[in-house]
Amino acid sequence: MTALIEQLKETCGAPNVLHEGDLTAWEQDWRKRVRGKALAVVRPGSTREVAAVVRACAKAGTSIVPQGGNTGLVGGSTPDEAGRQVVLSLSRMNRVRSIDAANLTLTVEAGCVLQACQQAAEQAGLLLPLSLAAEGSCTIGGNLGTNAGGTQVLRYGNARELCLGLEVVTAQGEVWDGLSGLRKDNTGYDLRDLFIGSEGTLGIITAATMKLYPMPASSLTAWAAVPSMEEAVNLLGMAHRLLGPSLTGFEVMNSFSLALVAKHFRQLRVPLYEASPWCVLIENADSESELHARTQFERLLETAMEDGVVTDAVVAGNIAQARQLWHIREAIPLAQAEEGLNIKHDISVAVSKIPAYCAETDALLAREIPGVRMVNFGHLGDGNLHYNVQAPEGGDPAGFLRDHEDRVNAIVYDQVKVYGGSISAEHGIGEFKVDLLPAYKSPVALGLMRAVKKALDPKNVLNPGRVVRL
Ligand code: FAD
Ligand code: ZN
Predict the structure, then answer these.
(1) How far is the CA of 62 from the centre of ligand 2 (A)?
(2) Which of 13, 40, 212, 354 is 20 to 30 A from 422, alpha carbon to alpha carbon?
(3) 309-354: per-residue pLDDT in tens?
(4) How does DSSP assign 304-346, residue by residue?
């Protein structure tokens, strides 16, 4: 193994091969639920170096864990405990390669932090509409590796829909240059879509060409109290009808998730949650003018109030207020972590089925664990909920997880199956869900996934044991 480390140092430069000292930042996941041990952390500076690292590792029989910002939530970006895997960090590959304003595209290296990509687009007067709470540290390679969602999916789609091309280093250490920037290309199997969402198991993304959009003339945010999940879904339908393509975000939050934010972040003023079981956050990004956006919003909220769909609402008066409202939404996972260990789910079912799903599953969980607290929030516009479960008040969070996690997961996911949904809407499978997948995915689909993995990475060099076991 020392021979491999020496070879990696020769390829990438000794300072870019870390194998001594504290490697916690690369070895531990964001949720602090797993802690592995790496043979080394390698930080190549170019696609050529990535390819050389892959060839060296493949030859030595050493597997590789690709890593971007290490913000993934399913335990897919950290090494196992054996001390034999190489973490390949893309962090030094963070350059913006080009912007083509006429083609509305941005080409960046995989280690470019999402926020830096957004800023590069903004400097050209354009919009990269991929947005998530981890955007200050997650990378475009990780976003595409997980097919990240975020808060604007209902208008612009997931990371997949925003990507026009990739550059990938294969498991054999070859480079596939697919950075064409073409919007139409039907010359065979879609290799790009195969790599997107493959969580580092099929190839290493080294660069991507992303779609850009014109900057909206104005973006307005409203916060509304709704009396039930049924009415939240009704409001979503009204918003689609009255705002049309200007509707860019529609998030739902239950009262308890907001109470946790109010409790743990006292500086944030959380509106309307005490008097209502649910609040929603609506974003209206209009291409005409602020006045037009405001008029549209007022019409929506007035109609909704007349119909009893909304009981109360506030519209942000300026950008700072809008940011504050989004900040509250984004603080929910952090407030939940402050409250103590909890059981997280990232599920999707058809929007029309969400109210029944929640009512039934809430009741099943309450019967199983009296006093259990639901932290239910997420991207209602996409039918995607972070349907999380917190220990009863005053309970011991660690003991709660030990005693109930498997049973809670079974209840939540079996219900997802009944409702024809997905057990992972946007976070991926990684390690945490790899053994759950066979119970919820068809044997035919799993067989095809294994066939793809075997064809592209027959030696199982890339992120073994994640997504699909061979
Ligand atoms: P990492 O965590 O480093 O890696 C994630 C996976 O991708 C791993 O399997 C890794 O091996 C693989 N990978 C990384 N880079 C590459 C590459 N260059 N080539 C191939 N494979 C690669 N996710 C959402 O979808 N929507 C959200 O709204 C959202 N909100 C979040 C909020 C917070 C506070 C946090 C901490 C996370 C959130 N996430 C969300 C999850 C996470 O941020 C996303 O999955 C993100 O896209 C991961 O990017 P990363 O660079 O950190 O990847
Ligand atoms: Zn999310």
Answers:
(1) 33
(2) 212
(3) 999 999 998 889 999 999 999 999 999 989 988 999 999 999 999 9
(4) HHHTTS-SEEEE-SSHHHHHHHHHHHHTHHHHHHHH--EE--B
